[in-house]
Amino acid sequence: MEQNRKTMPSEGLSSSHGCQQTKVMKSKELSEDLRKKVVEKHRDGQSYVAIASSLNVPKSTVASLVQKWKRHGTTMNLRRTGRPSKITAKGKMKLLREARANPSVTLEDLKKSLQGAGTNVHKSTISRTLHKEGLYGRVAKKKPYLKKQHLKARLQYATTHLKDTPAMWESVIWSDETKIELFGLNTKKYVWRKANTADDPAHTIPTMKHGSGSIMLWGCFSSSGPGELVRVQGIMNSAKYIDILEKNLFKSAKSLNLGRKFTFQQDNDPKHTARVTQEWLRKKKVKVLHWPSQSPDLNPIGNMGRDLKIAVHQRSPSNLTQLEQYCKEEWAKLSKDHCAKLVAGYPKRLEAVIAAKGAATKQHIKPGNVE
């Protein structure tokens, strides 16, 4: 009896261990090869009982595999839906309406809005819901403020000039002023570094207060290539602007093989539209392109200015004199082919304005192809 009693706990433990093994066996998934055999035997006309017996698989498992194969064409595990979202379909529509009606709405505001409707969720849940619908938080671009009269003027300009021939645009001299700071290029720089070494001089970008100075440049170009680029000394006014045109406009037209048969483009800056400037242009018989206000996206010289800044700051000028020198050198290097493509693609800008009903478009539209 004692011997039997001593062995009983051992037998009990063995039985318990056997149950654990059985549970493991039951929870273990069938191999892909075994699943295929189940389907093959079913297609051969064997019953669930026969398949289960021959493959030593529970009948319920055989039935489940066959039904899955019939319904989905596979016996592999399907993607699980996961826990149901706390945000209902109605709540999702509410979020989308509010985000589209007011793109500047914050996650905190959306969270409070849902709370008012009886749904309390974390802001990250709201963010994921919007992401699934293709809405992501991004930094808003700065664009010129456009009033109704601006929209109307831009749309009229685009529709009128969309009919112009390529030859007309090839005769235009595009111009603008741009400021270039010594340490002012707003670009990101990525470095490889270890943790806690972010402040190492090799891992930082040196900056200077107020950009350590800047220079103002006036430049022009046509489809034939870049024209003159000059530094504006001091504050630009009408008299200084006229002096720049006197010394550089016709010189540029000559170097670009346009002679006196060109159309001059300038924006509506007060010094450009001043009475003395207009009188000088009339006296010199310069044909001026009528320009809609608040339209930097319609001036392809913006692309040239961006390319210039990138090229110059890659050379890391150390002072304003060097900055001016690098600007003039890099401006002269700008490709004639690139200039021609910018002008050839100008109708794209007009089409973009028309599509936007006069609203602002991408300021740096990719150049078109030269035919």
UniProtKB/TrEMBL annotation:
Residue span(s) of domain Transposase Tc1-like: 94-163
Residue ranges annotated for the Sleeping Beauty transposase HTH domain, each copy included: 25-75
Pfam families in alphabetical order: DDE_3 (PF13358), HTH_SB (PF25787), HTH_Tnp_Tc3_2 (PF01498)
Entry coiled-coil feature ranges: none
UniProt-listed InterPro entries: Homeodomain-like_sf, HTH_SB, RNaseH_sf, Tc1-like_DDE_dom, Transposase_5, Transposase_Tc1-like, WH-like_DNA-bd_sf
SUPFAM superfamilies per the UniProt record, alphabetical: Homeodomain-like
Region (Disordered) residue spans: 1-29
BP GO terms, sorted: DNA integration; DNA transposition
Gene Ontology MF term list: DNA binding
Ranges for domain Tc1-like transposase DDE: 172-323
Comp. bias (Polar residues): 1-24
PANTHER family: SI:DKEY-77F5.3, TRANSPOSABLE ELEMENT-RELATED
Name of the protein in its database record: Transposase Tc1-like domain-containing protein
Organism name: Amphiprion ocellaris
Lineage: Eukaryota, Metazoa, Chordata, Craniata, Vertebrata
